[in-house]
Design brief:
The chain is α+β, with helices and mostly antiparallel strands. The chain is built from eight helices and 13 strands. Helices cover 33% and strands 25% of the residues.
C-alpha cells in the first residue's frame, strides 16, 4: 500500500453478534463497499457491548487508519454503549449535543420518551454529517464514523455519505486454475516480486467447484494489473482453465 492511500478498520459492536444470535452482515457489506470505493480495509473486529473493550479498539485504530467505521450499539437502552466506548477511546467526555437533541425531538414529537435523548449524548467535538435520504445524520468524531447496527439503516446511511470515502478505485482480474497451491506457490511468489504494487491472492475452491483454485490480482494501476495477469497466465499454461476478459473495477 503506497503512502497516503486510504485505509480503514471496520468494528462491529454487539453481544448478540458474538453469541451467534444475530448474523453479522454489516462488516461484509462495509468491507465490500469500501473496497469498491478504493479504500483498503486492513482490520475487521467483532466487539462486545463493553465500554473498556470498545475504547481500547477505537483508541488503537483511530491513529492507525484513515477511517474507522463502527456499527452497532447506538440506541437508547442500557446496553447501547458504543458512543461511550468511542468517547473513552478518543479521550473525550460524553456530552449532550444540541443539534442531535433537536433532531431527536423533531423525530419523536411531543410524546417522546426521555430515554430517547440518551442518543444525543455524543463524544465532545462530534459532528453530524447530514445527507439526502436519511433522517438522522451520521455521527463523526474525527476519523471515526458511527453507524447503527440495523443492516437496513446502516446501509442507507453509508450510501448517503459514501462520497466521503471515495478514492481512486481498485481494478481486479482473476485466473481460474486446475492446480493446487503447493505446486504453483513458488511461481506466484516470483510474479509478486516482479509486480510489488499489486496484490496477488490465491483461493482454493470447494471440492465440488468447477475449478480447484482462483488467483486474483488487484491494484490501482490497470496496466500493472494486466501485466501481472499476463505473466501468471504465461507461466501457468497447463493450469489455466479460464481468465477474466481483463482487469475491471474491484
Amino acid at each position: 500500500m503506497a503512502a497516503g492511500e486510504p485505509t480503514a478498520a471496520v468494528l462491529v459492536v454487539g453481544d448478540e453478534v458474538l453469541s451467534g444470535r444475530v448474523t453479522d452482515v454489516n462488516s461484509l457489506y462495509l468491507c465490500r463497499r469500501l473496497t469498491e470505493l478504493g479504500v483498503a480495509v486492513k482490520r475487521g473486529v467483532l466487539l462486545p457491548d463493553d465500554v473498556p473493550v470498545i475504547a481500547a479498539e477505537v483508541g488503537a485504530c483511530a491513529p492507525a487508519f484513515t477511517h474507522v467505521l463502527v456499527s452497532g450499539g447506538v440506541g437508547p437502552t442500557h446496553d447501547d454503549v458504543t458512543l461511550a466506548g468511542v468517547a473513552r477511546g478518543l479521550g473525550r467526555p460524553l456530552e449532550r449535543h444540541p443539534e442531535a437533541e433537536a433532531v431527536i425531538r423533531s423525530f419523536y414529537g411531543p410524546d417522546m420518551a426521555q430515554a430517547a435523548l440518551r442518543m444525543a449524548d455524543l463524544p465532545r467535538g462530534a459532528g453530524l454529517v447530514a445527507a439526502e435520504g436519511i433522517r438522522f445524520p451520521v455521527i463523526r468524531v474525527g476519523n471515526v464514523w458511527v453507524f447503527p447496527g440495523s443492516p437496513r439503516l446502516m446501509r442507507a446511511k453509508f450510501e448517503a455519505i459514501r462520497g466521503h470515502f471515495a478514492h481512486t478505485p481498485f481494478v481486479t482480474g482473476a485466473l481460474h486454475l486446475d492446480a493446487g497451491e503447493p505446486e504453483i506457490a513458488p511461481f506466484l511468489a516470483q510474479v509478486q516480486a516482479r509486480f510489488p504494487e499489486v496484490a496477488i491472492g490465491s483461493y482454493p475452491q470447494e471440492p465440488d467447484a468447477p475449478v480447484r483454485l482462483v488467483i486474483t490480482v488487484r491494484g490501482r494501476d490497470g496496466e500493472r494489473v494486466a501485466g501481472a495477469l499476463k505473466a501468471l497466465e504465461a507461466g501457468l499454461p497447463g493450469a489455466v482453465v479460464a481468465g477474466d476478459e481483463g482487469p475491471g473495477p474491484a
